[in-house]
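Researcher: Go.
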Amino acid sequence: MVSREFPAETEVVIVGAGAAGSLYAARFAAAGKKVLVLESGPAWRLGDLISSQIWARRLKWADPLLMQAPGAPAFSHRHAMGRGFGGAALHHFGTWIRLRPADFDAIDEVSGFRRWPIGYEDLRPFYDFIQKEVGIAGDARAERAVGRPRGAPYPMPPHPLFAQARLLQRGFAAQGLATAPLPLAINSRPYAKRPSCIYDGWCEAGCPTGALANPLVTHLASAQRSGAEVVAEARVTQVLTDERGRANGVEVQRLGRSHVVRSRWVILAASVVENSRLLLNSASSRHREGLGNRSGQVGRGLMVDLVAPVYGIFDEPTDSHMGVSAGQLLHRGAPQDRQRPTAPGAYQWQIAPSLKPNDLLGVAATRADLFGTPLDTFMRRSARGMASIVGFAGTSAAPENRIVGGGPVGADGMPAAMLQYRHPDATLRLRRHLVSEGEAVMRAAGAVDVWSGPPAGGHLAGGTAMGSDAAHSVCDSHGRCHEAPNVVIAGSGVFPGGSGTSPTFTLLAIAERSARHLLANWRDSAAKA
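Model: Structure:
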């Protein structure tokens, strides 16, 4: 149920109603725990999701919660953020890809420790469980050619390929690069009481039919059915702690009034940026530099994938308006493959996303240099024969790339987060390689005109990294804050290393593993907390 007011006390308070927060709410509520979810944005419903580029912007960040420090590169973070029920996963593209075993093996250059305190096999059963529960369409056997690790086959067959994907598949094959159907949390047939996709390419605006697995039709809906209270327009501004330094509730602003909610557990699932911002704003006599920040690790190790879009125009029709926003095919590469340039992590190509006239995945936006008659000519030509691929260059967790406090104080009384970020040189090299590789693919596919877009920020991760050593991480592998173990941090902020891969599937697998651990050890965990 959706509550207009909220109790003064609960067992579990969850900050954020996005992908991870909704999963925790579903699991704890189903186990009979008293759960309160506080979401700073609106109480979206499926009927609010309108297939329009203008209306889609409502679902994304609108508040100035993140400021860029002087000299920081352009960071288009708003498209990767969400506001309201469902969070960023309300308008995500449903690209659910597993990390590979090698992604967990990176060594931190500063500490000398293995970055991830867990390996692929620790998450494998939770990947398997989530994909069966929610539904993923794909071809696990074909995906082995692009590095899919061991795991259960997908519960749904892959989505069909339209003309754009078939053309581009030809180009990848000509370059000796394998492709496979892109694994998508979008129904290719009716599944989990949700309909199949209609392929009109409006994933970015949400999915009013429910074919796309957004929290409104998956874990948030389940949580509400199990009795979790979910409150919109409620911004948590501070995690409160007792004399021992343990969390004992939160302070929240709603409708111009300040409230305190006491709670045994606090789950921070507000986003990469907001989790760091909230921890830094929760300083106390026991946590003078911010909650969980005694070692100075909160906000550090921020990672932003660099996007490399490549476009082409063909003489034959591509039907680029058909399909889904994510794309239809996948290629994954690792830097050591085929003598690729040295760079951290890996990368992915999302091949043949559906295109709209303008905005984020719009045709006109690919040629911002054109105006008037040249733009009209370009648009008419592109409407028939344009194709695109989008590369994501993985990056590393450099400690100097970080989120800090101290920005202008907003209407909520909290200082805005400040971004101190510089793309690592290796990531810039990897992006240049992607542009070169992508343009070669387009030409091999038969494109008569080929061009690429400027660098842009993609997926976010890090800032509240998990680890076995409190001196170099913020939380343990279950998300429990080292300094206040009844605070659990959720989302891709706990990733201690990059992968060049869409994070949603992995952050859900981590949350599932954590929720099960906490419930299985509820009494013991509460005592230790």
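Model: The chain has eleven helices and 17 strands.
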